[in-house]
């Protein structure tokens, strides 16, 4: 969850209508967010990662205005025609190819607006931007530079400038070595011969994406006009982020001015054109279970709706990145109608459970002295690859992760089990745990059985006997052959074969992986294809 904190008075000024604090607190969760806490006049709410347009107080205020009927339907922002040009040089195409931008004029910075802008920027970096890899935002004092702007690739030592928060001129490679943001995000540019740079007509540096802006264009309380650039490797992510941050600034009274991006194909940004979907009225009523005014419910969620016979034609705002399917509109209709107003109904059909097909696996593991654990299917590349010292593979990545620790679907159960051992390292040894869970390998979902044991004395031979016992209990005779796996000690890892088919692996975890999980004793681990165990049963 993303936490957004704001003052009651600031929210009321953005909504534009007096609402008692108690009423506001009571009704905020009705728009599909959670109330985290109330501390005096400071309110904190939880926003789901699928709604980045509400990662700021401005976005929440916009949603509340529609929900309260103050400004129902699609919010429209006037945007001035493009006068500023942003030129994209071919040299940057192999580094970070996409860039968009806009100017926001007549901003009135104060403590709350600046804090909200900076927080929104970082929240978008984490969610849509995947830690700035897919997208990064630069916010600049427009009056300190002169268009047209040029986005190009340069050699690491070709140009020097003063990065934000410093007084010393540094080359780009020096920034990656000395500046805290350079150190943190240097991995994004690893192996690149050229680095991306955004400069103005006179060669002044606005930004070294995705690392750091120049000190020259730092925004302060005297800033009146803001230039926003968004760069990245994913064109959709870049456009989505610009739409969200530009309209959030417009909520504070800023005037959006478009920018002409001159690339292989010329385009004007931001593109705030609403996108169109259709949904059958009967389908809405079937899913929600009641007859409701679909038009009114969706307008309360910020959509424009035209009813034509048996369907609703819905125009959704460009910043609603979560609307991907008619079902998403049905969810909005339910929220707009009010979950609390939907009557409870009992199931219409009586059903009976069947036998639990994995019971034999659980009984086997309990008999071998293992305790079952359940871990999240979402993981991180750091845990799955870096800590395990494995080469990074293609994995399923989450579009809007709750956090960087839950950004991929796990390809293995073992790292999660090692993390459980780490959390329980204060408990007595030995500890033996297992999990029967899903992983995604090569784009395919598989049910796997994995176990780990930590003890003062354990090793390859004990692990082999455990795996052999599991297979024997399912009627298979185990065969093994040597396997090379960088997470395991060399010569102490083996593939598990049954009927000549590889169904898993086991072995003794190497010391450096053990210490990466803050453990101090020997660890053995195995992972087996659970569906194979039951294939003939």
Discrete helix count: 16
Average pLDDT reading: 92
Structural class: alpha+beta
Helical content, roughly?
25-40%
- Rg to the nearest angstrom? 28 Å
CATH level-3 fold name of the largest domain: Phenylalanyl-tRNA Synthetase, Chain B, domain 3
CATH class of the largest domain: Alpha Beta
Describe it.
Helix content is 27%, strand content 29%. It has 537 residues and is of the alpha+beta class. The chain folds into four domains: 2-67, Phenylalanyl-tRNA Synthetase, Chain B, domain 1, CATH 3.30.56; 79-269, Phenylalanyl-trna Synthetase, Chain B, domain 3 (Phenylalanyl-tRNA Synthetase, Chain B, domain 3, 3-Layer(bba) Sandwich); 275-341, 2-Layer Sandwich (Phenylalanyl-tRNA Synthetase, Chain B, domain 1), CATH 3.30.56; 359-533, Bira Bifunctional Protein, Domain 2 (BirA Bifunctional Protein, domain 2). The strands form six sheets. Strands 4, 5, 6, 7, 10, 11, 12, 13, 14 and 15 form a ten-stranded mixed sheet that branches. The protein has a seven-stranded mixed sheet with strand order 19-22-23-27-26-25-24. A three-stranded antiparallel sheet has the order 1-3-2. A hairpin with a 5-residue loop joins strand 10 (195-199) and strand 11 (205-208). The radius of gyration is 28 Å and the shape is globular.
Task: List descriptors.
537 residues, alpha+beta, Phenylalanyl-tRNA Synthetase, Chain B, domain 1, ten-stranded mixed beta sheet, seven-stranded mixed beta sheet, 16 helices, 27% helix, globular
Summary?
This protein is α+β, with helices and mostly antiparallel strands and 537 residues long. The strands form 6 sheets. Strands 4, 5, 6, 7, 10, 11, 12, 13, 14 and 15 form a 10-stranded mixed beta sheet that branches. Strands 19-22-23-27-26-25-24 form a 7-stranded mixed beta sheet. Strands 1-3-2 form a 3-stranded antiparallel beta sheet. 41% of the residues are buried.
């Amino acid at each position: 969850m993303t936490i957004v904190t704001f003052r009651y008075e600031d929210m009321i000024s953005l909504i534009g209508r007096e609402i008692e604090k108690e009423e506001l607190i009571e009704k905020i969760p009705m728009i599909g967010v959670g109330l985290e806490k109330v501390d005096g006049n400071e309110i904190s709410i939880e926003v789901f990662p699928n709604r980045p347009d509400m990662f700021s107080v401005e976005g929440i205020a916009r949603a509340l205005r529609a929900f309260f009927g103050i400004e129902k339907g699609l919010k429209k922002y006037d945007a001035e025609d493009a006068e500023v040009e942003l030129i994209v040089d071919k040299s940057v195409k192999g580094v970070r190819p996409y860039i968009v931008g806009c100017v926001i004029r007549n901003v009135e910075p104060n403590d709350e607006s600046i804090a909200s802008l900076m927080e929104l920027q970082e929240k978008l970096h984490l969610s849509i931007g995947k830690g700035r890899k897919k997208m990064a935002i630069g916010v600049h004092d427009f009056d300190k530079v002169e268009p047209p702007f040029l986005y190009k690739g340069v050699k690491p030592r070709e140009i020097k400038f003063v990065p934000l928060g410093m007084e010393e001129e540094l080359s780009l490679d020096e920034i990656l070595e000395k500046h805290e943001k350079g150190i943190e995000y240097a991995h994004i540019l690893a192996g690149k011969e050229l680095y991306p740079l955004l400069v103005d007509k006179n060669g002044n540096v606005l930004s070294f994406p995705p690392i750091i802006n120049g000190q020259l264009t730092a925004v302060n309380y005297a800033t009146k006009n803001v230039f926003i650039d968004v760069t990245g490797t994913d064109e959709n992510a870049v456009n989505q982020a610009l739409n969200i941050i530009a309209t959030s600034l417009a909520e504070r009274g800023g005037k959006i001015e478009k920018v002409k991006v001159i690339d292989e194909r010329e385009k004007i940004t931001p593109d705030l054109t609403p996108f169109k979907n259709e949904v059958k009225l009967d389908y809405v009523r079937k899913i929600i279970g009641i007859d409701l005014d679909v038009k009114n419910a969706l307008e309360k969620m910020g959509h424009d709706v035209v009813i034509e016979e048996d369907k609703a034609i819905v125009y959704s705002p460009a910043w609603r990145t979560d609307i991907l399917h008619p079902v998403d509109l049905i969810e909005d209709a339910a929220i707009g109608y009010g979950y609390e107003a939907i009557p409870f109904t009992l199931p219409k059909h009586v059903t009976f459970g069947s036998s639990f097909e994995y019971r034999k696996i659980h009984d086997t593991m309990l008999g071998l002295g293992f305790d079952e654990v359940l871990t999240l299917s979402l993981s991180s590349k750091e845990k799955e690859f870096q800590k395990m010292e494995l080469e990074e593979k293609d994995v399923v990545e989450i579009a809007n992760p709750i956090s960087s620790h839950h950004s991929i679907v796990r390809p293995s159960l073992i790292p999660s089990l090692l993390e459980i051992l780490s959390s329980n390292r204060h408990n007595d040894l030995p500890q033996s745990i297992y999990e029967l869970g899903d992983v995604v390998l090569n784009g395919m979902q598989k049910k796997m059985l994995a176990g780990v044991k930590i003890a003062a004395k354990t090793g390859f031979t004990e692990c082999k006997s455990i795996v052999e016992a599991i297979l024997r209990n399912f009627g298979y005779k185990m065969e093994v052959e040597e396997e090379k796996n960088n997470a395991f000690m060399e010569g102490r890892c083996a593939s598990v074969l049954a009927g000549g088919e590889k169904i898993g692996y086991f072995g003794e975890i190497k010391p450096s992986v053990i210490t990466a999980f803050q453990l101090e004793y020997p660890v053995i681990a195995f992972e087996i294809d659970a569906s194979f165990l039951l294939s003939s049963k």
